[in-house]
Structure prediction request, 346 residues.
Amino acid sequence: MSAETSNMVLDGAIAPQENTRLFGHDEAQAFLAQSYRAGKSHHAILIEGPEGIGKATLAFRFAQHVLSHPVPGEAPAEVHDPDPQSPVFRQVAAGASHNLLHITRPVDPKTGKAKSGITVDEVRRAGRFFGQTSGGDGWRIVVVDTADDLNRNAANAILKMLEEPPKRSMFLVLSHAPGRLLPTIRSRCLPLRLRPLADDDLRRALDHLGLPVPADKADRVMPLSGGSVAQAIKLINYGGFDVMEAFAEVLKQQGPVQRKAIHKLADAVAQRDNDTLYAFFCDLVMQHVAEAARQAAVEGRTQHAFDLSQLHAGLAEQFGVADAYNLERKQTIIGILAEVAARTAN
Prediction:
């Protein structure tokens, strides 16, 4: 496993390039395999869908399928579970394949953590990658994980490659929010939308990970996970349940009791050694405001819905600025909780 991958894999998860199983996306796999076998595979495929539902795992499975069967007409009509002992699997899993490049957020050598975005220097690696002599029959595959993390210069750089792709190249571009990508990037990719996992598939995926679900929370994991393995892991292994309960307590209280609850939650979430829990909190707050705006619109309270949509945009900016300038998280959280509690109260 590469340094950047090991840094970003959740505790309890399996790195996508090492995962031998995929659940719930049989149709997408069949489409990719049959298109490739027929010689009609697009040079750039935009794999879309919420975080943690298997986009990266699908990308690496298909990449290994192509690299294992470089002649399309001789490839199987299905993507099979990879053989962990095969040379292709072992090379891809170790980040040592000469035919596959994984572009993701680089690790900051000072902190040992992934940087906030993918820089143009990371994308330029793809240029050098395509310039090297390829192994086997010449397929070169780039997995962009995720395109949402590309900064402006990096996005423009990847766009140039998509516009003039090298011969026998393939781009597997992942995105949690494709609507935010450059329209020119979207237009040069074939979209492949993945849906959140059904409860049975999510349960099978968690069983595959050997992830124990607390007995007292078993009936809540499925509905709160939203079909995402990543979300389930955050709930179970990262204290997500506690954060949700504390956030609900903040919204329920008023006055001094509410302020005490806000500070307690901020203390728990603002720990510097738990970026995953902080990200979980940020998503929770944003989802709460978005749902409140949607509900206000349904009820015909158009002005309130508009105000909440403005709040949603403002919160996204506040979180972004706090991360960009490394501001103290606790104070950011306290201010945001107070504002959200006041403005979403019925």
The two ends are 49 Å apart (CA to CA).
